[in-house]
Every structure is written in structure tokens, then in C-alpha cells.
Amino acid sequence: ITPNIVTFHTLIHCYGKAGMLDQVEEMREQMKQLYITPNLNFLNMLIDCYGKAKKFDEVNRLRNEMAQMNITPDIVTFSTLIHCYGKAGMLDQVEEIREQMKQLNVTPNLYSLNMLIDCYGK
């Protein structure tokens, strides 16, 4: 049985939650070898994994990868970024995300608004 995007998503999500980022990278390499292209949901999950681990260089690399693949961030992407940057006290990046949301006409939802309140309430 050949793994697909769902298989890799599940495995990487588990590895990410466990903080096993070396295994995350191994899985991503296997995906490349199998010519499996990440989709928006997959990239959102990766951003969450790396953001929670405070690996912001990797988060930024993933954001650039999304742009190169012509994948437009959605409210989940933005909410995840706000949450990760906010938890790290990186309010300049939170403001950058808010501006990007405005440029792309992405309307905040209840979750993203709560993340913003949480960021600025500290």
C-alpha cells in the first residue's frame, strides 16, 4: 500500500504534537520522493507544528513555500500564525499577519479574534 497525503498528514501531525520534528522532516522527505504535493490543510498543520515548537525560521520558510506554490493562506493559516507568533510575544509579526489578512480580504473569525485578544491582553 502506497501512502498518500492523508497518511502523511496523520503521521506528521502526531510527530509534530509529540515534538518529534526530526521525524516530521523525514516524512516530508518521503513525500517528496513519492511526488506527493502538500495542500493548504497540510501546510497549515506544518505551520502549527513548527510554530508551537517556536521554529519560526521554518514557519517563514513554509509561508514562502505556500507563496511559491500559489497557495493562498486562509483564515486557518492566519489564525494559526497569530496564535504562534502571539504566544511567542512576536507582536510585530502578528501585525504583519493582520495586514496580510486585510490585503487578501480575509475576514477574522471568532477564533482569530480570540487569538488577537489573547496576544494583546498579555
Describe this structure in words.
The model has no long low-confidence stretch (mean pLDDT 94). The chain has helices at residues 5-17, 21-33, 40-52, 56-68, 75-87, 91-103, 110-120. α1 (5-17) packs antiparallel against α2 and α1 (5-17) packs parallel to α3. It is an all-alpha fold and 122 residues long. The chain has seven helices and no strands.
Based on the model shown, name its key terms.
122 residues; 7 helices; globular; 73% helix; mainly alpha
Uncertain stretches: none
Q: What is the terminal separation in angstroms?
A: 49 Å
Average pLDDT figure:
94
| Rounded Rg | 15 Å
Gross morphology is globular
How much beta, percentage-wise?
under 5%
Q: Count every beta strand, where a strand is a DSSP E run of 2 or more residues.
A: 0
SSE diagram, text form:
Blueprint: H1 5-17, H2 21-33, H3 40-52, H4 56-68, H5 75-87, H6 91-103, H7 110-120
